[in-house]
Specification:
The protein has about 160 residues and is of the alpha+beta class. It is about 50% helix and about 30% strand. The longest helix is centred in the first third of the chain and has 33 residues.
């Protein structure tokens, strides 16, 4: 039983902080997408398709469009990659614009979905970390099942041997 307790302590003491560190990185990385604003634009023309690999076997196809949109009173143009398919010139499209301190950048809905996924993953890792941390502290404070009283054990062995005779 003692080996299993050490394994739990190892997992919660070494592996979980690594996940916690990755969670913090996801949060920091996602701030720019959270601060993006939602705008409506018009499709100028289609630039083609783009395959984004999900894993080794599967990929998702996204279409790239040149888009015109109005931002801060100016008519601007930009390229956006989206999961919407078959848009014709003149169709409405929604884009996300990240513009802190005048740095203008278009974000596609793909980036927004990736942020939502990473935010959900971060929340899950935080919950796992807190649960494992609470389990670890409860294991470290309750030693009754790992405590071994040598005198008591000798007494029990002697009683057993006397009854066996």
């Amino acid at each position: 039983m003692e080996v299993e307790v050490e394994a739990v302590c190892f997992a919660s003491g070494c592996i979980i902080p690594i996940y916690w560190f990755l969670t913090i990185i996801y949060w920091i990385k996602g701030i720019r997408y959270k601060k993006s604003k939602y705008f409506r634009g018009k499709v100028i023309y289609s630039r083609g398709t783009k395959i984004v690999k999900v894993n080794r076997r599967r990929g998702e196809i996204y279409e790239t469009y040149n888009v015109s949109y109005e931002y801060k009173g100016k008519a601007l143009e930009g390229e956006v990659c989206t999961s919407e398919k078959g848009l014709e010139p003149g169709d409405d499209i929604f884009i996300y614009i990240y513009d802190p301190e005048g740095v203008h950048e278009i974000q596609s809905d793909i980036n927004w979905r990736k942020f939502k996924f990473s935010a959900g993953f971060s929340l899950l890792m935080t919950v796992v970390f807190l649960i494992s941390w609470s389990l670890r502290s409860s294991i470290e404070t309750t030693h009754s099942y790992t405590h071994f009283d040598e005198e008591e054990m000798k007494k029990l062995v002697e009683e057993y041997l006397e009854h066996k005779k």
